[in-house]
Structure formats: structure tokens, C-alpha cells
Amino acid sequence: MRFDGVRKEYAGSVAVDDLSLAVREHELLVLVGPSGCGKSTTLRMANRLVEPTAGRIVLGDEDVTDVDPVALRRRIGYVIQNVGLFPHRTVAQNVATVPGLLGWDRRRTRERVTELLALVGLDPDRYARRWPHELSGGERQRVGVARALATDPPVLLMDEPFGAVDPVGRARLQQEFARLQRELGTTVMMVTHDIDEAVRMADRVAVLSRGAHLEQLAPPLEVVARPASAAVADLVGRGRTARLLALGRLEPSDLDDAGAATRPGGTRDAPATAGAGTGRTLRLGAELGDVVTALTDAAGASGGGAVPVLDASGHVVGAASAQTVVRALHRLTSGGPAAG
Ligand SMILES: Nc1ncnc2c1ncn2[C@@H]1O[C@H](COP(=O)(O)OP(=O)(O)OP(=O)(O)O)[C@@H](O)[C@H]1O
């Protein structure tokens, strides 16, 4: 799906100024930005709930403005906060909405409903006949996702899909949904104002400012490590180090004796480390947050200490210390493109 010079004006005020953005097939792209910057308007133009004032939105090789809006919405899944389940229809009937509109027979519909409920983690035997008011907020959101996926749409639009769910349930839903999306390969465009949700779930993050101005479009680690503008820095500023620790990975050049590996003829002995005594080790590629945890466990109250680091075949390639973490953070925040 591609936005080409898209603009939306409301009675003289500009919600989306001039947005060009390509959503890659099978990716989970998250639009993030402050309230009122035009995220929802952008999303809603994709399924023609809002008509653009100018520009083109292309799905496959069709301009969406050439497609009948009702037909379009059957091809594009849509999930919103509080889902808007039909209150007088059971869970199964809600999920079967679009198959019903498309005239699927009963048996095919029933099988698909059962399959989808299981997919989103709701036991069909327990949930199919319940009413929306008999569900928790998180369960309702799962039904909303199942309903949107019923006909396996190539594109799914999600507007603050987990906004109404409590923080614990929310983290679990984010994780489960990201896994499901990777499994199904659905192309997803999702809106949130929560930068943590964005960096946790996205393949790429699009940071928007007022007028849906595209500040940065990059993988989460790059957005956090190297904000492209003051607006992005502002958004990721608070808690940035914690986010870097969650996203960054341990690399050979971060290790304490990294120099030894590159010395001609240099052999590498297992370094004497405090961590060695505890039996604790780390692997190359470990999350930096796990490196910090391992160091904390190995250090004792006095601080200091290091933990041996192994490569994929289990050989010691160096040691991780507090310096390692500092080096990794420097590596991530300076220089070439961040892996991620
Ligand atoms: N139907 C409408 N009529 C007039 N103005 C609108 C309408 N819908 C949105 N706007 C305006 O367009 C701008 C962008 O709104 P939009 O809902 O897209 O922002 P958003 O980034 O999704 O915000 P939020 O995170 O608060 O939901 C805002 O200034 C809003 O007031």
C-alpha cells in the first residue's frame, strides 16, 4: 500500500499536509506521533472512511478511490479501540460478519470462526456463544482482531487497538499480535500515540508530527538510537536508555578484549572474570538488558566484575563488563545504520 502526496483538509484546516509513504508487503508499520498530528486521518483514508483532498493511495495496483468503498472495506481489515463489537450478536456471529456479507456457507463460516478464535487465544467452546458484555476488555479486543482477520485480508488497519486494555493485558496482546502478524504475513498499518508500543511491535516506525509530516521512517532501534529530528528525539527522549537496552544486542566489538581477536596471530584465552565463578555466561547477540541483569547478578554489592561471553558454538570469545554496555550504547547511537 502506498500514499503518494496525500492531503486532507477539513474546512480550511490541514489534517494531513503532503504525505508520501510506502507500506511494505508483510510488514507491521506503526504510525506514532502526538495527539492531533493526523495519524487516524491517514489510516482512515486507506479504507475510504475519509476521502483525501488530494493525492493517491494505491493498494496492489489499484487507486483505492477507484474501488467501491464497501468492497474495499471487505478487503481491508479494520480494528479500532473498543472494537465496536455488535452488542446483540454473539462472539461467533461477530467474527462471522464479513464471511456472512460475502455469502460463505454455514460450514465454511463455522470452521473459520473456530479457527480464528483459537488463533487469537480464545477457546471456541468457551467463547463462541458468549455476548460481548460477558467479555473482558482484552477478550473483546481479541474478538475484534479475529473479526478483522476473518477473510484473511491482505491489509489490516489498526487504530489504537490496545488502547482500552490494562497495561498487563496490553503487553501480552501486543506480543501475541506481533507474533500472529508474522505468522500470517498480513500487511499491517497501525496507529498509536505510545512510542513504547511502537518500538515493541513494529518492523518499521513512522514518526509523524503535525500535518502528518513524516519525521522519520526506520526500524525501531534506529529511531530510538538515532532520532532524525528534534521532534523524534522529543518523543523517544524519556526512557531512551531503557529502550536501547531492550532493543540493542551484544556484538563482538563491545567485548572487553575485543582487540585480542584482531591482533595478528593473537590467541584468545578465556578471560579471568568474576562471572566465571558463578557459572553464568552470556551469548553474542544477547539483549543488552539481559547483559545488565547478568552483570548485576555476577557483581555482588561491590559492583564490578564481568561475565564470559560465548559464540554460537559455545566458545568463549570475550567478557562483558559495565564498559561493554557503555561501548554498546555508544556504538548504537553513533556511526552507520543501526541493525534492527
Ligand atoms: N471530521 C473532522 N472534522 C474537522 N477536523 C477534523 C476531523 N477529524 C480530524 N480533524 C482534525 O484533524 C487533525 C488530525 O486529527 P487525527 O484524528 O487524524 O489526529 P491523531 O493524530 O489521530 O490524533 P489522536 O492521537 O488524538 O487520535 C486534528 O487537528 C483534528 O482536530
From TrEMBL:
Q: Which InterPro entries match?
A: AAA+_ATPase, ABC_transporter-like_ATP-bd, ABC_transporter-like_CS, P-loop_NTPase
Q: Name one Pfam family in it.
A: ABC_tran
Where composition is biased (Low complexity), the residues are 264-278
Segments forming a coiled coil? none
Named from the GO MF annotations, one term is: ATP binding
Q: Which PROSITE patterns match?
A: ABC_TRANSPORTER_1, ABC_TRANSPORTER_2
Stretches for region Disordered: 255-278
Keyword set for this entry? Answer: ATP-binding, Nucleotide-binding, Transport
Q: Which residues cross the membrane?
A: none
What does the similarity note say? Belongs to the ABC transporter superfamily.
> Which protein is depicted?
ABC transporter ATP-binding protein
Q: Which organism is it from?
A: Cellulomonas wangsupingiae
Recall the taxonomic lineage recorded for the source organism. Answer: Bacteria, Bacillati, Actinomycetota, Actinomycetes, Micrococcales
